[in-house]
Amino acid sequence: VRSGDVPFAVAGGFDLIGAGAAASFDMLGNLSEHAARPFDVARDGIVLGEGGAMLVLEPLEAAHARGARVWCELAGAACAHDAEHQIRPALDGHGLAAALTRALREAAVEARDVGYVNAHAPGTAVNDPCEAAAYRTVFGARAVPVGSTKAALGHAQGGANGLEAAACVLALQHQVLPPTLGVTNVEPALELDVVTAGRRGPLDVVVSSASAMGGANAVVVLKKSAGAHAPTSPVSHSFSLVARATWSSGEPAPLKRASPAGRALVALAKQLGPHPPSTGLYQACGQEKLELTTRFSERVLTKGFAGMKATAPVLEYSPYGPFVSLALELGARGPFWTLEADALAGAFTLQQALTDLSVGRCDRALVGSCGLDATASLLVLERGPGFSATFDWSAARDDDPAFHGLTALGDALEQKTSAAFRTPDGRGVTVSFR
User: Fold this and answer.
1) Contact yes or no for 235/383 (Cβ under 8 A)
2) For helices 127-139 and 94-107, what crossing angle results, to 10°?
3) What is the DSSP string of 300-332?
4) Residue 208: helix, strand or coil by DSSP?
5) How far apart are the C-alpha atoms of 369 and 266, rounded to whole Å?
6) Beta carbons of 214 and 314 less than 8 angstroms apart
7) Cis omega (within 30 of 0) on the bond before 274?
8) Would you call 176 helix, strand, or coil by DSSP?
9) Which of 69, 100, 407, 417 is the most exposed place for a label (fewest CB within 10 A)?
């Protein structure tokens, strides 16, 4: 929206409790037998929840023109990867600290001006101290009120970030810091000012942070006043193609996603390296998540956990498993994206990578995909002259192909032509290179 690529966007998430998710957390020993108590000395794990929330994002002048209520300003956002461990977050919180620092910088906000942090804080023994370390690094010990709405709502998985962003919006509107329910004895070693009971503001800036198994971190910064907003200015998607590579086994894929396409993707990236630590990773996914979740659930229901590694839910039955391995192998700590978007996945992923390159969130981007059909494709892009790209999100023609299209995008890029993609319901995009 800020770059001018689209006039407005609807952003958020939702999720339900499924057998696969419950089994995954159970395998890792992360489910609480009592209640979610983030940052408490008696915390013993996650309580799963369901739900979702959506936010409408648009330029301030557009909202005023249509008479819409302006709830707050989305001032900054950033992602960063730990590149340290397959499951747990970095012990010193460096990935989350990097995302916080970048988001505050983009928002032109000083750490001392933040009045509340809605933490990821699922209530596990390992995760909460890692997260606390990041807050101490960025804000100082007990320098900013920190809370977790997961204590009230549970961990809604794919819906958690939307719910928590909405909670931050409401905190700004009502000038209230929401309580972290059930917490009675904050662990002293964490050195955090945990909001155990609701507090009154004033609140001008709040932060919502999120982390995921595998090392991904994301942060958004929200401001009460939408007066000093960043103007909409079109982004020039100018970039250079460093290298590209594809791989195919020519054979049906086995049950586990990480073999062989995931391993091939890692091998391709290493062959095309070395890559700086600030490299961003961008993975295009189609419908693999549904099939992988179904496979995992069937496997657990028929055979239980016997013979299955604790890392299997993340590395073998997850669509982003190969890119977690890629981040670890390369030591890549830049932005980390997995975008699931049926036939338009390749175009969405490429646009995100080019936007991040254009605005300086990273200097190099690895855009890739590896499918259940045992194929892998990778583009290595850098900021700088060479190519420019435009995205036309109008409906594509009926004869346009319907597939992920990362290989097709690479072909069009090298030939400086266009590639078009559509979904069965007529949604489409045309990407043009020159």
Assistant:
1) no
2) 40
3) HHHHTTTT--TTHHHHTSSTTHHHHHHHHHHT-
4) strand
5) 11
6) yes
7) yes
8) strand
9) 69
Between strands 116-118 and 145-147, the pairing is parallel
- For 362, the token pair is 């990273």
Q: Name the token pair of 299.
A: 């496997």
Give dist(CA 210, CA 93) in Å, integer. Answer: 12
Alpha-carbon span 135 to 195, nearest angstrom: 14
Give the rounded distance of the alpha carbon of 215 from its chain centre.
10
pLDDT(129) > 70: yes
**Strands (E) located in 37-93:** 51-57, 73-81
Give the count of beta carbons closer than 10 Å to the beta carbon of residue 398: 8
With b for 16 or more beta-carbon neighbours within 10 A and e for fewer, the 270-291 pattern comes to: eebbebeeebbbbbbbbbbbee
Name the pairing type of β-strands 375-383 and 238-248: antiparallel
Is the preceding peptide bond at 260 cis, omega within 30 degrees of 0? yes
Place of tokens 């401001």: 223
Supply the Cα-derived Rg of the chain in whole angstroms.
Answer: 21
Is pLDDT of 317 > 70? no
For residue 381, which of 287, 245, 212, 286 has the smallest C-alpha distance? Answer: 245
Cα–Cα distances (Å) from 174 to 51, 68, 171, 204, in that order, read: 22, 18, 5, 11
Distances (CA, A) of 360 to 78, 210, 238, 334: 11, 22, 12, 11
Nearest 5 degrees, angle CA 66-CA 72-CA 78?
115
Give per-residue pLDDT as tens, 356-392: 998 888 989 999 987 665 678 899 999 888 899 988 8
**Number of Cβ within a 10 Å radius of residue 251:** 9
Q: Which of 378, 430, 374, 376 is nearest to 399 (CA)?
A: 430
Treating both helix axes as pointing N-terminal to C-terminal, what angle do 288-303 and 19-27 enclose, rounded to 10 degrees? 70
Record the pTM: 0.86
398 by DSSP, 3-state: which?
Answer: coil
